[in-house]
Design brief:
Layout lengths: L1 H10 L22 H34 L8 E3 H6 L9 E5 L2 E6 L2 E5 L3 E7 L5
Antiparallel strand pairs: 1-5, 2-3, 3-4, 4-5
Bound molecules: zinc ion (ZN).
Length: 128
């Protein structure tokens, strides 16, 4: 008798937002009410927006730093120095292995990066 009761209780879904049991409606309902559904979805979108903003500002910082290296005649820069200036080596818009070089891009600026240095920093011509 008690086991049947427990089984039945386990099948009652709980609201993804507030954790309340969802006693009415379809068994695949995820929220107890519209308020909870909206709150939950808004929070997910907020996280995505926050993440996207963070990555975009890191890319902007990288772009600023790389722009400062384009055309200066400085063929190479120490990665640690760049990191001290706020460069994020792991944040790139593309990566390709060309021959024995790791070629990265930050939008229309391309560069080769090793564990310790970046070099051959240049603007890509006719970038679309
Ligand atoms: Zn709820």
């Amino acid at each position: 008798m008690l086991m049947d009761y427990e089984k039945r209780m386990r099948r009652i879904p709980t609201c993804l937002e507030c954790g309340d049991k969802i006693r009415y409606g379809r068994t695949d309902k995820k929220f107890c009410c519209d308020d909870c559904r909206m709150k939950y979805n808004n929070n997910i979108h907020k996280e995505v927006r926050t993440y996207r903003r963070k990555v975009m500002s890191m890319l902007a910082r990288n772009y600023e730093i790389l722009s400062g290296l384009v055309g200066t005649g400085l063929d190479s820069a120490d990665l640690q120095d760049l990191e001290l200036k706020g460069f994020y080596p792991g944040i790139v818009t593309s990566y390709r292995r060309i021959g024995k070089h790791d070629v990265f891009c930050c939008f229309d600026i391309k560069y080769i990066m090793t564990r310790t240095r970046i070099y051959s920093v240049m603007k890509i011509k006719n970038f679309q």
